[in-house]
């Protein structure tokens, strides 16, 4: 059972919600780093109740987070709720987000780290889509919602716009869409259609971003040339043109094996982002394919240790 915290306790733990402790800001609230009385570091997500939808968002996140437990999902430790204040107390991820690493000049993720992180996210997605009687649709997959712990194990976070598909429904329609431009499946943007296939599409875009180092909203892209189109056009010619330059170098003794790995990754991303939702692969298949890609790279590069958490 959760132990609930009072507003006062959270206020003290965050130094009165000090800017110095602010670690993230989203549409429905802000996230602060906090130190609880027993020296435990946590993250406190405070919902912005000025935003009308934040009340619903808090209830949704509470309901969903209470019912799920997986090593690649952020754990909810507690909550705090009254008329004027609503917050979730979450486990703290000291290494920050995948987004931070992708665009940091002083800390570059290697090919294995990127594969491992994507396997973690795909495992979380498989659990959400298939681990329950009712599939849970995240609806906002993107690198800033993938948080990393001390061991660089990825945890999917932010369920504020997630949806629970109950009964026989494989999809549902909502009138307002809150997902992020660039990652949103076309059918979600067009007609508000929410389904597991939409999460798969967003995962495919994030997979491309992770291996190209380019955001879907990068200034080089527009309606005529999207990130997906750019990768797709170059894929049969040369992955070197689109891959993050930090990942592939022709001087590398393992260049051929790594180039093949990146090519497989981009092909998988294409299978995730097929225009027709019904023709996209599912999260189970994504996990299987990524494990296969990593296994093949390990054999070719030879004996690099695999992180335990990813051994299924």
Automatic annotation (TrEMBL):
<dbReference type="GO" id="GO:0005886">
    <property type="term" value="C:plasma membrane"/>
</dbReference>
<comment type="similarity">
    <text>Belongs to the protein kinase superfamily.</text>
</comment>
<keyword id="KW-0325">Glycoprotein</keyword>
<keyword id="KW-0808">Transferase</keyword>
<dbReference type="GO" id="GO:0004674">
    <property type="term" value="F:protein serine/threonine kinase activity"/>
</dbReference>
<feature type="domain" description="Protein kinase">
    <location>
        <begin position="17"/>
        <end position="298"/>
    </location>
</feature>
<dbReference type="InterPro" id="IPR017441">
    <property type="entry name" value="Protein_kinase_ATP_BS"/>
</dbReference>
<dbReference type="InterPro" id="IPR000719">
    <property type="entry name" value="Prot_kinase_dom"/>
</dbReference>
<keyword id="KW-0812">Transmembrane</keyword>
<keyword id="KW-0723">Serine/threonine-protein kinase</keyword>
<keyword id="KW-0597">Phosphoprotein</keyword>
<keyword id="KW-0732">Signal</keyword>
<feature type="binding site">
    <location>
        <position position="56"/>
    </location>
    <ligand>
        <name>ATP</name>
    </ligand>
</feature>
<keyword id="KW-0433">Leucine-rich repeat</keyword>
<keyword id="KW-0472">Membrane</keyword>
<dbReference type="InterPro" id="IPR001245">
    <property type="entry name" value="Ser-Thr/Tyr_kinase_cat_dom"/>
</dbReference>
<keyword id="KW-0067">ATP-binding</keyword>
<keyword id="KW-0675">Receptor</keyword>
<keyword id="KW-0418">Kinase</keyword>
<keyword id="KW-0547">Nucleotide-binding</keyword>
<protein>
    <recommendedName>
        <fullName>non-specific serine/threonine protein kinase</fullName>
        <ecNumber>2.7.11.1</ecNumber>
    </recommendedName>
</protein>
<dbReference type="InterPro" id="IPR008271">
    <property type="entry name" value="Ser/Thr_kinase_AS"/>
</dbReference>
<keyword id="KW-0677">Repeat</keyword>
<keyword id="KW-1133">Transmembrane helix</keyword>
<keyword id="KW-1003">Cell membrane</keyword>
<dbReference type="InterPro" id="IPR011009">
    <property type="entry name" value="Kinase-like_dom_sf"/>
</dbReference>
<dbReference type="InterPro" id="IPR052451">
    <property type="entry name" value="Ser/Thr_kinase-like"/>
</dbReference>
<dbReference type="Pfam" id="PF07714">
    <property type="entry name" value="PK_Tyr_Ser-Thr"/>
</dbReference>
<dbReference type="GO" id="GO:0005524">
    <property type="term" value="F:ATP binding"/>
</dbReference>
């Amino acid at each position: 059972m959760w132990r609930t915290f009072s507003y006062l306790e959270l206020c003290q733990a965050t130094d009165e919600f000090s800017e110095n402790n602010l670690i993230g800001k989203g549409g429905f609230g802000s996230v602060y780093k906090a130190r609880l009385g027993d020296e435990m570091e946590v993250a406190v997500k405070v919902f912005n109740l000025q935003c009308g939808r934040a009340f619903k968002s808090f209830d949704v996140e509470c309901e969903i987070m209470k019912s799920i437990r997986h090593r690649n999902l952020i754990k909810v430790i507690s909550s705090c709720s009254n008329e004027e204040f609503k917050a979730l107390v979450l486990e703290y991820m000291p290494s920050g987000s995948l987004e931070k690493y992708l665009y940091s000049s002083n800390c570059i993720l290697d090919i294995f780290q990127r594969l491992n992180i994507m396997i973690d996210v795909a495992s979380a997605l498989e659990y959400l889509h298939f681990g329950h009687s009712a599939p849970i649709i995240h609806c906002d997959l993107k690198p800033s919602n993938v948080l990393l712990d001390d061991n660089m194990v990825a945890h999917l976070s932010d369920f504020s716009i997630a949806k629970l598909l109950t009964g026989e429904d494989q999809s549902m329609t909502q009138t307002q869409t809150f997902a992020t431009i660039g990652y949103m499946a076309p059918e979600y943007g067009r007609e508000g259609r929410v389904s597991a296939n939409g999460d798969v599409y967003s995962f495919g875009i994030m997979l491309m971003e992770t291996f190209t180092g380019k955001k879907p909203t990068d200034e080089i892209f527009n309606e005529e040339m999207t990130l997906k189109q750019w990768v797709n056009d170059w894929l049969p010619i040369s992955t070197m043109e689109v891959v993050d330059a930090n990942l592939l170098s022709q001087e590398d003794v393992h260049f051929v094996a790594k180039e093949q790995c990146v090519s497989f990754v981009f092909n998988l991303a294409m299978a995730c982002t097929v225009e027709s939702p019904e023709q996209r692969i599912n999260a189970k298949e994504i996990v299987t394919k990524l494990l296969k890609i990593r296994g093949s790279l390990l054999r070719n590069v030879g004996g690099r240790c695999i992180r335990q958490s990813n051994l299924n």
